[in-house]
């Protein structure tokens, strides 16, 4: 595996590979790699000749109450993890390399952001979109891989690729789960023993909702109420939100139909967990 820190060198590498007819799969990350990232990398490895991952903690997507400096970083660990998955290129630029001067323009995401977790993170997805425009132009991948754990981000990226005509295939990758259904997350370690037993009920509530919809219930409010009741009855967590939207548009539905997302967020003592399912009705 080769580590590249220069945007120009990264572009030159990709141009050469594409001229040789090789396909490039890209997994963007902010580092501190875990099993979820490995799933993305494995799929990229299976579907492309060249696999590039980026590690860049993007300051533009951190809000005023989010500590950019405190974000976990462990490059040696990340390097070992990437090498173990046969990654070809690890793109590891500095902040100065990515933002060498004050930008003369900005990317503003206007839709798909004022719901779910984005409702409380004003400007977050503007920062995500800005760095992805740069990374897509630097790496020029054929395919880009994103985890559906953050389904809202996937929706925003889908809009970005469509609106800016990027010749990139977006590959959403399913959520990686524990044996009991709990979505894998670095935050799970902060759950108490009792909360860890209860946490799989987030996914169970989503599966119950899906079954109700498949059996003919189409009222979003009634489905949301079923989910809230199940979570309240089976966990001590505080429900942050239970929401149903069209997907990837993330628009309110008067009646459930088409492709939808059902998403939940629940606050436990020291961890806020999110989960979702997407499917076609």
UniProtKB/TrEMBL annotation:
Q: What's in the keyword line of the UniProt record?
A: ATP-binding, Cytoplasm, Ligase, Nucleotide-binding, Pantothenate biosynthesis
Amino acids binding (R)-pantoate: 61, 153
GO MF terms held by the record: ATP binding; pantoate-beta-alanine ligase activity
Task: List localization entries.
Answer: Cytoplasm
What EC numbers are recorded for this enzyme? 6.3.2.1
Record's keyword annotation contains Cytoplasm: yes
Q: Which biological pathway? A: Cofactor biosynthesis; (R)-pantothenate biosynthesis; (R)-pantothenate from (R)-pantoate and beta-alanine: step 1/1
Residues involved in ATP binding: 30-37, 147-150, 176, 184-187
Which positions in this protein are listed as binding beta-alanine? 61
Principal cellular location given in the protein's record:
cytoplasm
Please tell me what else the database record remarks about this protein: The reaction proceeds by a bi uni uni bi ping pong mechanism.
What name appears for this protein in its UniProt entry? Pantothenate synthetase
- Organism per entry: Fredinandcohnia quinoae
